[in-house]
Amino acid sequence: MFLRARRQRTRHLLLSFVLTTIPFQIAIPLLTPTYQTIAGTFTAKLFFTIPLLASLLMLAREQNTRIFYLAREERWVTAVLLLLLVSFCNPNNYALWATGAFAWLFITCVVFARLVAANLNPTEILAGFYESFVVLCGLQAILAVCFPLLGLTSVTTLFQVGGAEWSTRNGSRPGAVGVFVHPGNLALFTMMASGFFLACYLTGQHRKLSLGLLLLNAMTIVLTYSRTSYLTVVLVLVAIYYIYHNAHKPLLSLKTLLRVVLPTTLVVGWLVFLSPLSSNFLASDAQEMFQARLDHWLIGLSIFQRAPLLGVGLNTHLEYVAHDAALSRLIHNDFLTTNPIHDIHIVVLAEAGLVGAGLWLLFLGHSIYRAKANVAAGNNVVFSLTHIGVVLCFTFYGITDWSPLSHSIFPLFLLLTFFAYKYSLAPQALARLASVGPPALVTDSLSTLATSTL
């Protein structure tokens, strides 16, 4: 009995370990294209990753190993698989290996998530995320203090080869990188984790520790000197807090405008123009970076004009630029034409066309709508609030950077999305449950999927 109880308390550790390793990008190349190719945001290589290793272990050890099925809450998975199929058949796709690399990453993460959901309950899954994020955020904060605060540049190359170069943004301005290769990746991860800890704090999960980690993450974000993250984290945390306390109210209303949008706008204005951090926005290389984004948008929209309906294939836009002499001449800057477009929405538009961009916007909007409905019903609150934060991070931070579509971030996005959808109910189902009885009855009906507690 003791051993059984102990196993119940430690079943989440494999999940926690896998989550912790994702930012380190621990992987072994399995297949590399033999032809010359420009790597997409996910490269063109197939990797043997820690999630894949964990999946193989679970397939060998666990009883429930069902991974092939269709489910209503995973229609977003089906949509991505269909887009991949279209990309493989797309005549504009000059880098099938690159599309295959994205397909491999996506399927690996989905299989791992399905195995976890089949063998762990929501409480154990939440514990796995919590413990992983505690370790990662603590480590990131320590490394952020070492550099740039203490100037110990040696820590920037402890985990990533390119950390030393990108920690100073090619000499323009320093910023913490943590275990990542670029300050932007660290900032984005820390914002996602901050949304998770705020959700835990609001729902009473380790309130003191969660609040402490929120403050620690605030320090880390400041030390990244990432301008977009300063603005995004304010929007994300305000949105999570407001939705938690006003989930039953409509988001688009005059009261919301007066109570939330205007104060948030004032805070953002103070941050940009009057705060001690304003020099990051008004000085340094801000103008140069803004021009670089405009040039990247021009490249992306030019690709879209050439293939407006279906795009040029997932994870392939750089290869398409290399094959189009006119596009290469459009921007006389090798860095801009050989690095991913710094706007994930433009990347989706260029690589998946109007069809993919429409599905992407539908996914973003529906995710917030579905999560808000579940928060209002008291169901799956932590993952729902976290998913709202993650979606907003990708929506706003993704306008100026491609780090959301990187090996160190995207798997975490997929896993958080999977469990947010897995344990939530569609708004229509919640409405039907609400019609059969008082709110207390609805809450009881949802207790099996419940608001997870640690």
TrEMBL record:
Signal peptide: none annotated. It holds the Pfam family Wzy_C. It is found in: Membrane. It is a multi-pass membrane protein. This is O-antigen ligase-related domain-containing protein. The chain crosses the membrane at residues 12-32, 38-60, 101-121, 133-159, 179-202, 214-244, 256-277, 344-369, 381-399, 405-423. Keywords: Membrane, Transmembrane, Transmembrane helix. InterPro entries: O-antigen_ligase-rel_domated, WaaL-like. One of its GO terms (cellular component) is membrane. Residues 213-361 form the O-antigen ligase-related domain. The lineage of its organism: Bacteria, Pseudomonadati, Bacteroidota, Cytophagia, Cytophagales. Its main location: membrane. It comes from the Bacteria.
